[in-house]
Amino acid sequence: MRPGEILMTNVRSPPTLPDDPSSVRHLYVFVHGFGSSGARHGFYVKQRIDAATLKKGGWTYICRANSSSWDVGTFWKTSDGIYEGGQRIAQEIVTIAAEFPKLEYLSFIGSSLGGLYSRVAAKLLFGKEAIDQETKGEKKIARLNSDILPGMLITLATPHLGVRCLYTQWNSWLMGWIRTGKELYLTDDDKAPLLLRLAEGAYIDVLKRFKARISYAPIWDDGIVAFASSGISVDNTVSLGSVDSDKGKKIGLKIGQNPVLITRLHEKKKDPSSDKILPYFNGDAKEKTLKVMVEGLRDVGWTIIHVNLDHKRLATLYPSTEKRPNVFSEAVLSDIISRLP
What we know:
Largest sheet: 7 strands, mixed
Number of helices: 14
Helix content: 25-40%
C-alpha cells in the first residue's frame, strides 16, 4: 500500500478500538508534526507500543485532527498556528478518551511539531480551562474526565525553542509567512511570542504533573531542527552541523552510523551550560527570550537523550523493509518502550 493510500484510510475511517475498551488503563497518543501525517509513520509506533503494552492495559491512538486525506490539506491544517493545532488535538482526545471507562493515564508521543501540539493539548486537558468544542457553529464545553492523570510526555526532534539560529536557514522563506512558521521563528509577537508563553505559567504547571518528560534530540542539524532547540539547551556545541561538516568528519562520525543511536544521556533540571556563553543563539535578537524559555522548561526536569540522527530521520519512524532498511527506528522505539510503565 502506498503512503497516500495509508493516509486516506486512516484519516477517513473511524479508529478501530480494542476488543475490550474497559481493559485500557493507559492511553498513548501519537501526534504528528508539520505537513506530515501519523498514518505515514505513526502506524509503526502504534504497532510496536501496542505489542509491548496491551497486556498491561496500554493502547495507542494516532491523532487525526491535524491530518487531511491529501497532503496539501495537511500542510494547511498544520500552518494555522501551534495553539490551534493543539486545541484540535485536545478536542479529539476528549472524544476518544470517553471510549475507555477505566482509563487512568494519558501520555503523549509528539513527533517534531507534534511535541509542541502535545504541550498545548496537555495544558488544555489538564489545566483549569474547559475545552471549547465547536460543532456546526455551536460551541460545546467538553472536559477530560478528572480521574485521568498525566502520564508521560515524549517528544521526538521537537523544536521546543523554535527554529531560529539553525545551521542553515533554507526554509525561512517558507516558514516566515505562515502563522506556524512565525511562531517557530518567535516573530508572532514582539513582547510575548507563543513559544515563550508555552514556557511559563499554566503550561509549566501542567508539565510538572507528568510522571516523566523525555526529549529525543538529534545531534545533526539538518536545517530544520537544531540539537539545542530539541535538547532545550543554550549550548549547541554537540551539534555536528550538516552531514558533511568538518566537525563530523573530524571525529569520524556519520549520521546513523551507530544503530544503538543513543550517544549521551543526562537528567538535570538546570542546563549545565546556562552560565557559559550562548553558542546557539548568542547575539540573536531573541537571545533574552530564548534564555528565559530554556530556564522555564529546564526547571521542570527533563530527560534529554542525544541521538545520532538528524531531525527528519528521528521524527519519521517507519519499519524496515528489504528495499528500505531502517535499524534506527527500531533502536529509538526500543528505547522509548523500555521507559514506558
